[in-house]
Design goal:
The complex is a heterodimer. By secondary structure, chain A is α+β, with helices and mostly antiparallel strands. Chain A is about 25% helix and about 25% strand. The longest helix of chain A has 24 residues. Chain B is α+β, with helices and mostly antiparallel strands. Chain B has 11 helices and 11 strands. In chain B, helix 2 links the parallel strand 2 and strand 3. In chain B, helix 5 runs antiparallel to helix 8 and helix 10 crosses helix 11. The chains are: A alpha+beta, B alpha+beta. At the A-B interface, helix 3 and strand 28 of A face helix 11 of B. The complex binds flavin-adenine dinucleotide and iron/sulfur cluster. The site of flavin-adenine dinucleotide has 31 residues of chain B, from strand 2, helix 2, helix 6, helix 7 and strand 8.
C-alpha cells in the first residue's frame, strides 16, 4: 500500500480496540517467567554448549601472541574461537569496528576469543586460562583534548546535513540586544538494558538459525550473513522477546557472531551471553558531546539568531552524535546555523541510543532556552510559546503536519502549578531542602519506514499476524493485535501475533520511535488486502463490506468471518510504503516536561519530587503502553540528568564503571511521582494509523527540565551532565 | 569461577582449624560479596568452608550491659532488633542505608565487615591492582578516582572500605571476637580491625589466616542522638560518596566516624574534642593530611558540609 496522500476516514477510526488501554497480551507470559528470552530457548536445540567471550584488555594495539593451550585442556572445553582460527570474516555494513578483533585491537573489550565448553561455568573458568600478550599503542580517548582535531563528518541518511545555514547568523547574533553564548557537555552513556546481549546458534548443514535479542531482525540477518559470508537466505534470526534494547540491539553484536562461529567450531549448538562487565565497552554507547549554543533575541524575546554546534568522537569511519538537529526545527528565528564535527577517538564504537541526537541535543538546547528566558526576564514557558513556529524555520513553505506544541506547554503549566514557581532562584526552602521547578520542551521527529506484515484468517474466524517486528518491552504485540482486531472486527483475543522472525515479512523494526506507527500501518495494509480477499470470496463488494463483531456485513447480509476461510486459510501480505509526505510536511512529535526538584542544601544531593509530561504524538494506539513508554523515558531522563555517565579513563582508553554497580541508573526511590498526559490528537499525514512515535519523545528534554529545576532551587547553573553534587557543591550556600 | 571443594564446618574452632589446613580456603557466610568476586575470578578460593551452620546467629546481652552480636546475624535481623534500635540506633540506621532488602537478608555481620572494596579497577582483571594482584601496580591512581579514598591512602592503593555498618561499629567502639586456628580466642577493637593500605593493600584486616569472626560486641549504650547520613548520587542502593555516623550528646560532645573516605572506617578521637566548635573545626582535624585526587577533592568539602548538617540536626 502506498501512502502518499493524507489519510481519510478508515476502519481504525472506529476505535473499538485501537486507542483502548488494553493490558499487554504478552503480559501473562512475562509475569510468569514463561516468555522465552534469548538465553532461555531451551527446547529449540539439543546438546547445547556454552560460550564465554573474552574482551580485549587494551584499547588499541595488537595481539602479539595468544596461547589457548591451557584453556583447551581445561575440563569440558570443546572449542576456542579466535580471529586466527575463525577463517576470513566480512563485516556488516552497520558495524564500525569488527565484532571479533585480532590481531588488530580497535577498542577495549573488543571480543578476541570465545571459549566453548560443556557448561557455562567451565567455559568461564577456562577463559581465564587464555593468555594474551598485547602490544598496546597510544590512542585518543579524551573528547575535550581531541575536539580541536575534529573534522566535518561524512553526510549520511542518519546524520542529515552536517552544516546548515539560513540568513546571516553571525550578523544577527552580533546585533541582537540580548544574547547568550554557552557550552554544554553530555557524557558517554550505556544502554544497560536488563537483558544483556545473548544468542543461541544452531547450524543445520550450511543453514544457520540464531535465537537472539535483536531490535532489527532484517538488519541482523543481513549483517550476520555478510560477516559470515554466506547467503542471506541461509540465515534465520529469531527474537520473539527482548529484555530492553534502547538502541543497543539495533546492530548485530559479538554474541551473535561468536555463537555462530562457536557452534561451527564445536559442531554443536552454542549459547553465548555477554557478561555484564563486557556490555559497556564491547557494545555501542551514546557518545559524549560538547555543544555550543548561541541565541540572540530582541528585548521582547523574539529569537533573531540561533546556532547550535556539536562535537563528538568515534572510531575511524564512525559517525557523529547528531545533537544539533532539533535546533533546526524547534524554534523560530530568521538567522540560524548548525554544525557537527567529529573527532577520531579510540574508545568503543558510538552509535544510537534512545533518541540519538535529540536526547543530548535537547539536554543542551533546553538549558540554553532557560538561561535566555532568564536574561530576557520572560517566563520560560512564555519564551517558548513566543518563539513557536508552524513551519520549518529553514523552509517557511514547509508546514508541520501538526504541531500542538503550545497546547502542550500551556496544559502542562496549568496542570503542574507552574504559576507558583518563583522566577527568582533559591528562594523556596523546606527544612534542609532547596526546592525548585523547571521545565523544558520535548521534541522528537517522526520517522517513516516501509513495514510489511502477513495476516492469516482461519476457518474458525481467528486471525494471525506475522511480521518481523520486535517487541522490546514496548508493547508491539499488543498494538499490533489491536490494529488487526480493529480492522477485522474481532476482539483482541481472536488475534494471534507472531513477531521477531526473519521468515516473516520485513517490518520497520524497533528504533527511533518509528516502530509503533510504521509496524501497525504495515499490519493495516495487510488487513486491507485480507478484507478485500474475504469480501471477494463472500461475494461482497469490498467497499461496502463492514467487518463487525466477527462478521462481514453488507446490506442485510451478515456472514461469520471464518466462513470465508472454510475452504482453507486465507493469507494476505502487504507493506506500507510512503510517498513524499515527510518531505512536503515536517513530521515531529512535541511535548513539555515539568519537574520539581529538591536539593539538599548541605550535601547537594538532588532528588526529583514530581514530574509531568504532556505529549502530542498523534493518535495514541494504547494509552496504557504509551504511558509506560513515557514514564520509562522520564525515568531515563532523570538518570541522564543526575547520574548516568560512563567514566572514561583517558590514559587507558576505556569506560571504567562497566557494570551496574558503577553505572548508576535511577532506582524506585529516585522517582516518587510521575504524571503523563497525551493530547487528544490525530495526524492523518503520518500514516493510516494517524499515529506517531512516543517512546523517545518522553526522554527528549527531561534532563534539561531537571537541570532547570535544580537551577531554580539553588541558583546554581550546571552545564555539564550528569549534574552530580561534586559539580556544584562549592557554589551552594554555607551550611548554617 | 574456578572449581572448588566445599565443606560445612561443625564448630567455630573446627572451621578455623580447617581453614588453616587448607591455604586458599575461604569462609562463606551470606555469599553476597564472595560469590560475586568468585564469578569474576577476583577471589579464587580452592576450598569453601560454609559457616552458616554454626550457631552464631543470636544477639545476647553481655554482663557489661552491652550486646554480643553473633557473626552470622543477618544485617536485617541486626537492624530490626529492638535493643539495637533503642540503644544503638546509629547501627540500625547505617545498616538500613546499605545495599537492598534482599541483600541485607543474606548479608551477615562478619561478612559485612569483610566485604571488599568497590574500586572499579579492582573489578577489572585486565587492569593492574595491588590489592588483587600484589605488586602489579595501581590502575586507579591517575585514573577515575571519584569514589576512592582521600585520607590514609598510599602510593600502592587509594581504595576505600565500602561498609556502612562498619562506620557505625567504629563510632560505637565495638569489639570483634575471633577464634584462631589453634582454638585460641581473642578480641580486636574496631579501631584496629581494618588496616590502612600501606605497601600491602591486599592485607585488609588484623585477622590471621584462618581466623574466624565469632561475634561483634557492642559496649554499653552511649545515649545521645544517633545520626547516620549517607551521601550518594541516587536515593538508594548505592555506595556512599561519603557517610557520617555521629553520636551527639546534649552537651554537644560526641563521636564521629566517616565512611567513603579511607581504607577503613575513619575516626580520629582527638578531632571529636572540637565538636562543640562545629563542623569545620572537626573536619580540619579529622581530615588533616588528606591527599585527595582531582576527582575526589570534593569529598573533603562534602564531609564538612554533611557533618555541619548532622550537627544541626542533632541540635534541632
Ligand atoms: C549490589 C550490592 C550493593 C551493596 N550495597 C552496600 C551498601 O550500600 N553498603 C554496604 O555496607 N554494603 C553493601 N553491600 C555489601 C554487602 O553488605 C556485603 O556483600 C555483605 O555484607 C557481605 O556479607 P556476607 O555474609 O554475604 O559475606 P560473604 O560474601 O559470605 O563473605 C564476605 C567475606 O567475609 C568472609 N567471612 C564471612 N564470614 C566470616 C566469618 N565469620 N569470619 C571470617 N571471615 C568471614 C568471607 O570469607 C568473605 O571473604 C552491597 C552488596 C551488593 C552485592
Ligand atoms: S586503588 Fe587499590 S583497589 Fe583500586 S586499583 Fe589501586 S590497588 Fe587496586
Amino acid at each position: 500500500m502506498k501512502f502518499d496522500t493524507p489519510a481519510t476516514t478508515n476502519p481504525i477510526d472506529a476505535l473499538k480496540v485501537v486507542g483502548q488501554p488494553i493490558d499487554r497480551i504478552d503480559g501473562p507470559l512475562k509475569t510468569t517467567g514463561t516468555a522465552p528470552y534469548a538465553y532461555e530457548h531451551h527446547g529449540e536445540a539439543e546438546n547445547v554448549a556454552y560460550g564465554h567471550v573474552i574482551g580485549a584488555g587494551i584499547a588499541k594495539g595488537r595481539i602479539a601472541g595468544i596461547d589457548t593451550a591451557a584453556a583447551g585442556r581445561a575440563p569440558g572445553v570443546l572449542a576456542i574461537v579466535t580471529a586466527a582460527t575463525a577463517g576470513p570474516l566480512g563485516k556488516g555494513k552497520r558495524n564500525t569496528a569488527t565484532l571479533l578483533g585480532g590481531p588488530e585491537i580497535q577498542h577495549y573489550h573488543q571480543a578476541v576469543a570465545l571459549v566453548v565448553a560443556e557448561t557455562f561455568e567451565q567455559a568461564r573458568a577456562a577463559a581465564e586460562l587464555v593468555r594474551i600478550d598485547y602490544l598496546a599503542e597510544p590512542g585518543a580517548f579524551d573528547l575535550r583534548a581531541a575536539k580541536g582535531s575534529a573534522t566535518k563528518p561524512k553526510e549520511s541518511g542518519q546524520t542529515g546535513p552536517v552544516d546548515t545555514s539560513v540568513g546571516d547568523f553571525a550578523g544577527a547574533f552580533a546585533r541582537a540586544p540580548v544574547s547568550l553564548d554557552t557550552t554544554y557537555t553530555t557524557p558517554d552513556q550505556s544502554h544497560m538494558m536488563m537483558e544483556p546481549h545473548a544468542s543461541l546458534a544452531l547450524w543445520e548443514g550450511d543453514r544457520l538459525t540464531l535465537w537472539t535479542s535483536s531490535q532489527m531482525i532484517d538488519w541482523w540477518t543481513d549483517d550476520l550473513a555478510a560477516t559470515l559470508d554466506i547467503p542471506k537466505k541461509n540465515v534465520r534470526v529469531v527474537s520473539p522477546f527482548i529484555g530492553g534494547g534502547f538502541g543497543g540491539k539495533l546492530f548485530l553484536r559479538a554474541d551473535a557472531l561468536l555463537a555462530a562461529l562457536g557452534a561451527r567450531a564445536a559442531g554443536r549448538p552454542v549459547k553465548v551471553a555477554l557478561h555484564r562487565p563486557l556490555v559497556p565497552n564491547n557494545t555501542t554507547h551514546r557518545p559524549a558531546t560538547v555543544q555550543r549554543i548561541r541565541i540572540g533575541a530582541t528585548r521582547e524575546g523574539d529569537i533573531t539568531a540561533i546556532a547550535h554546534e556539536s562535537w563528538s568522537g568515534d572510531l575511524p569511519d564512525g559517525g557523529p552524535e547528531t545533537a544539533v538537529n532539533q535546533t533546526r526545527l524547534l524554534y523560530a528565528g530568521a538567522n540560524r546555523m548548525t554544525a557537527m564535527r567529529l573527532a577520531v577517538l579510540d574508545l568503543p564504537e558510538g552509535n544510537s541510543m534512545r533518541a540519538p541526537g535529540e536526547a543530548p541535543g535537547m539536554m543542551a538546547l533546553e538549558i540554553a532556552m532557560d538561561e535566555m528566558a532568564e536574561k530576557l526576564r520572560i517566563d520560560p514557558v512564555e519564551f517558548r510559546i513566543r518563539n513557536d513556529t508552524l513551519v520549518d524555520p529553514e523552509k517557511p513553505g514547509r508546514p508541520f503536519s501538526s504541531r500542538p506544541f503550545v497546547e502542550c506547554l500551556r496544559l502542562g503549566a496549568d496542570r503542574f502549578g507552574w504559576s507558583r514557581r518563583d522566577p527568582q532562584p533559591a528562594r523556596r526552602r523546606e527544612g534542609r531542602w532547596l526546592v525548585g521547578l523547571g521545565m523544558a520542551a520535548a521534541f522528537r521527529n517522526n520517522l517513516l519506514m516501509t513495514s510489511a506484515a502477513r495476516v492469516r484468517l482461519d476457518a474458525e474466524g481467528g486471525v494471525t499476524v506475522e511480521t518481523d517486528m520486535t517487541d522490546i518491552g514496548t508493547g508491539s504485540y499488543t498494538i499490533i493485535a489491536q490494529t488487526a482486531a480493529e480492522m477485522m472486527g474481532l476482539p483482541v483475543g481472536r488475534v494471534t501475533v507472531r513477531l521477531g522472525d526473519s521468515r516473516f515479512p520485513v517490518s520497520a523494526g524497533s528504533g527511533g520511535q518509528f516502530g509503533a506507527n510504521n509496524a501497525t500501518a504495515g499490519v493495516y495494509a495487510a488487513c486491507v488486502k485480507l478484507r478485500e480477499e474475504i469480501a471477494r470470496r463472500l461475494g461482497f463488494n469490498s467497499a461496502d463490506a463492514a467487518f463487525v463483531d466477527g462478521e462481514v456485513r453488507s446490506g442485510n447480509r451478515a456472514i461469520p468471518l471464518g466462513a470465508a476461510a472454510a475452504e482453507g486459510e486465507i493469507v494476505a501480505e502487504d507493506a506500507i510504503e510512503y510517498g513524499d509526505l515527510d518531505e512536503t510536511y515536517q513530521q515531529s512529535t512535541f511535548g513539555a516536561h515539568f519537574v520539581e526538584a529538591a536539593v539538599d542544601s548541605a550535601t547537594g544531593e538532588a532528588r526529583v519530587r514530581r514530574m509531568l509530561a504532556v505529549c502530542a504524538a498523534g493518535r495514541i494506539l494504547n494509552p496504557k503502553s504509551a504511558r509506560s513508554q513515557v514514564i520509562g523515558a522520564m525515568t531515563m531522563g532523570v538518570g541522564a540528568a543526575l547520574m548516568e555517565h560512563l567514566a572514561v579513563d583517558t590514559r587507558r582508553g576505556f569506560f571504567v564503571n562497566h557494570d551496574l554497580a558503577g553505572y548508576e541508573v535511577p532506582v524506585h526511590a529516585d522517582i516518587p511521582h510521575q504524571e503523563v498526559v497525551f493530547l487528544d490528537e490525530t495526524d492523518p499525514i503520518s500514516s493510516p494509523m494517524k499515529a506517531k512515535g512516543v517512546g523517545e519523545l518522553g526522554l527528549c528534554g527531561v534532563g534539561a527540565a531537571v537541570a532547570n529545576a535544580i537551577y531554580n532551587a539553588t541558583g546554581v547553573r550546571v552545564r555539564d551532565y550528569p549534574i552530580t553534587l561534586d559539580t556544584y557543591l562549592d557554589r551552594l550556600p554555607e551550611v548554617a | 569461577m574456578k572449581p572448588f571443594s566445599y565443606e560445612r564446618a561443625a564448630s567455630p574452632a573446627e572451621a578455623a582449624a580447617a581453614a588453616a589446613r587448607r591455604p586458599g580456603a575461604r569462609f562463606i557466610a551470606g555469599g553476597t560479596n564472595l560469590l560475586d568476586l568468585m564469578k569474576l575470578q577476583i577471589e579464587v578460593p580452592s576450598h569453601l568452608i560454609d559457616v552458616n551452620g554454626l550457631a552464631l546467629d543470636t544477639i545476647e546481652p553481655t554482663p557489661e550491659g552491652g550486646l554480643r552480636v553473633g557473626a552470622l546475624v543477618s544485617n536485617t535481623a541486626l537492624a530490626a532488633d529492638p535493643r539495637v534500635r533503642r540503644d544503638y540506633a546509629l547501627l540500625t540506621r547505617a545498616l538500613l542505608a546499605g545495599a537492598s532488602g534482599q541483600l541485607r537478608n543474606k548479608a551477615t555481620t562478619a561478612g559485612n565487615l569483610l566485604q571488599r572494596t568497590r574500586c572499579p579497577y579492582f573489578y577489572d582483571t585486565a587492569q593492574p591492582c595491588n590489592k588483587r594482584r600484589p605488586g602489579s601496580g595501581c590502575a586507579a591512581i591517575g585514573g577515575f578516582t571519584r569514589q576512592l579514598g582521600v585520607i590514609g591512602t598510599s602510593d600502592a592503593c587509594i581504595a576505600t572500605h565500602p561498609s556502612d555498618m562498619a562506620v557505625a561499629l567504629r563510632a560505637l567502639d565495638a569489639v570483634v571476637e575471633t577464634v584462631q586456628a589453634d582454638g585460641a580466642t581473642r578480641t580486636i577493637p574496631m579501631a584496629d580491625f581494618h588496616r590502612l593500605p600501606g605497601e600491602t593493600p591486599h592485607i585488609e584486616t588484623a585477622l590471621q589466616p584462618g581466623e574466624l569472626i565469632t561475634a561483634v560486641v557492642l559496649p554499653r549504650p552511649l545515649g545521645g542522638r544517633h545520626i547516620y547520613r549517607k551521601v550518594r548520587d541516587r536515593a538508594s542502593y548505592a555506595f556512599a560518596l561519603v557517610s557520617v555516623g555521629a553520636v551527639v550528646q546534649p552537651d554537644g560532645t560526641g563521636r564521629v566516624a566517616l565512611g567513603g573516605v579511607a581504607h577503613k572506617p575513619w575516626r580520629v578521637e582527638e578531632a571529636e574534642t572540637e565538636l562543640p566548635r562545629g563542623a569545620r573545626a572537626v573536619t580540619e582535624r579529622l581530615l588533616a593530611g588528606a591527599r585527595p585526587t582531582r576527582d575526589n577533592a570534593f569529598k573533603v568539602t562534602l564531609v564538612e558540609r554533611t557533618l555541619g548538617s548532622v550537627l544541626a540536626e542533632a541540635r534541632g
